[in-house]
Automatic annotation (TrEMBL):
The lineage of its organism: Eukaryota, Metazoa, Spiralia, Lophotrochozoa, Mollusca. Keywords: Glycoprotein, Signal. This is Protein quiver. Residues 1-23 form the signal peptide. It comes from Dreissena polymorpha (Zebra mussel). InterPro entries: QVR-like, Sleep_regulator. One of its GO terms (biological process) is regulation of synaptic transmission, cholinergic.
Amino acid sequence: MDKTLRYILCVLLLAAFACSAEAIRCYECNTRDNNGCDDPFSDAIQKTGCAQCVKIKGKKNNIQGVQRDCLTERLPYDGCESGTENGFTGDTCVCATDLCNTSDRTAHVSMFLMALASFIATQWLY
C-alpha cells in the first residue's frame, strides 16, 4: 500500500472517531433524591446535549452515595480514577457514548478504541 493511500485511510479513521464527539445522552440522578440511582442502577432521567457523562460513587462521613451527571464541556480523558479529597473517598468515571454512565466498566471502552485506532494508524504510516 503506498504512503498516500495509508495517509488517506488514517485521516478517514480519525474522522470517524471525531464524529463520535457529537452531543450524547447521559443519565442524571443522585442517591440522595432517587434510590434507583444507586448500584445496581435502575432509574434516572436522561439529559441530552452532553459532551461526556460522569458517574461518581463514594463515601463521605460514613454516608455512601452515587451521582450520575452530564458534562457540557469535554474533559481531555475518558476513564475512571479513584481518590480522596475533602473527606470524600470514591471513584469518578467519565465516558463519551450514549447513556454510558450506568456502570464503572463502560468508561474504559472508548479509551481502548482510541488507543487501538492510534496503534493501527501508526502501523499504516510506517
